Amino acid sequence: MAEAQTLQVEKEEIDNAEDTERTRDQACFLPRADIYEMDDQIVIVADMPGADKNSIDVTLEKNILTINAAVDPVIPQGYALQAAEYEVGDYHRTFRLSNEIDRSKIEAVVKDGVLRLYLTKAAEAKARKISVKAG
Amino acid sequence: MMYRRYRVPNTWREVDRLQREMNRLFEDYYPARVRRAPAFPALNVWSNEDGLSITAEVPGVSPEDIDISVVGDTLTLSGERRRDELKEGARYHRQERGYGSFTRSLQLPYMVDVNKVHATFQDGVLNVELPRAEQDKPHKIAVKSA
Q1: Residues in Cβ contact with B30 at an 8 Å cutoff, skipping those fewer than 6 apart
Q2: Overall number of domains in chain A
Q3: Distance from the A105 Cα atom to the nearest Cα atom in chain B, whole angstroms
Q4: Coil, strand or helix at B139
Q5: Is A135 inside a domain boundary?
Q6: What distance in Å separates the CA atoms of residue B89 and residue A37, rounded to the nearest whole number?
Q7: Chain A to chain B, count of Cβ pairs less than 8 Å apart?
Q8: Residue A117: which domain range?
Q9: Which of A10, A51, B94, B123 is 20 to 30 A off residue B23, Cα-Cα?
């Protein structure tokens, strides 16, 4: 169990050298994610400030779940940038899912710049409790 | 013995000085595009002749949990990011996102009109508009020929 973490300030930029080159001329970040598991569900929570429901694209191909977001930066009209502590950019991250996920029941919800993916476990994969008998 | 005591620290001081000089040299050639934010949240500051506009990325903080105050020429942003309430039996596989409360103060370059401060929040991005106080705006003085 991870310890209580404080709020991190910096976003992690994706290194271009190891990936294929991107066509969009914008920085691209790896969204920070939490993953937790319940009896019937796995939830992926990813921080993607600036991304809304139209800009987020979630795809599942074979067992690779890809999250992509093309972010249009918030630029206050008529203002010039004086000092910057963060950059605005797209988001990209992939996760490999195990076979126990029911592919037809993946739900994605975005609220306040946080994407939540609810992955339902396939019925046969739900934890079976095996009672141990004393012999 | 005296000799060593005297010489050794001196050499290190010299190495230190050289390192500082090298750092400065490189910083000049590769200026950081983005400054490192000293605290959460990272802020971008925009300005025009009528005032300032400050944007911050605060994903997962609901707008009612953000507190914005202006006292004198100091802007303070504070709030709290809550973690998901987990049902019993849930366990984390991965935990990269931080949570907790935050406060950040920023000294503004001039007095702002407190009554006209306006904030919007969308998709985890906060934007605070701070119009410059009317009495603080620079006055243009016309030069008359005598």
Answers
A1: none
A2: 1
A3: 19
A4: coil
A5: no
A6: 8
A7: 152
A8: 28-72+85-123
A9: A10
pLDDT at B17 over 70: yes
Fold topology of B43-83+100-136: Immunoglobulin-like (2.60.40)
pLDDT at residue B9 is higher than 80: no
Question: B127: how many CB neighbours lie within 10 A of its CB?
Answer: 18
Confidence (pLDDT) at B30: 45
Tell me the mean pLDDT per 10 residues along chain A, length 135.
58 68 79 90 93 91 89 87 88 86 88 93 70 80
Q: Which amino acid is at B61?
A: V
Cα angle, residue A27 at apex, residues B68 and A82 outer, rounded to 5°:
45
Give me the sign of the Cα torsion angle B14, B17, B23, B24.
Answer: negative
Provide the token pair at B69: 């105050």
pLDDT tens-digit readout, B57-88: 999 999 999 999 999 889 999 999 988 888 88
Residues in chain A closer than 8 A to B118 (CB atoms): none
Residue of chain B with shortest Cα separation from A73? B125
Q: Are A94 and A65 in contact (CB under 8 A)?
A: yes
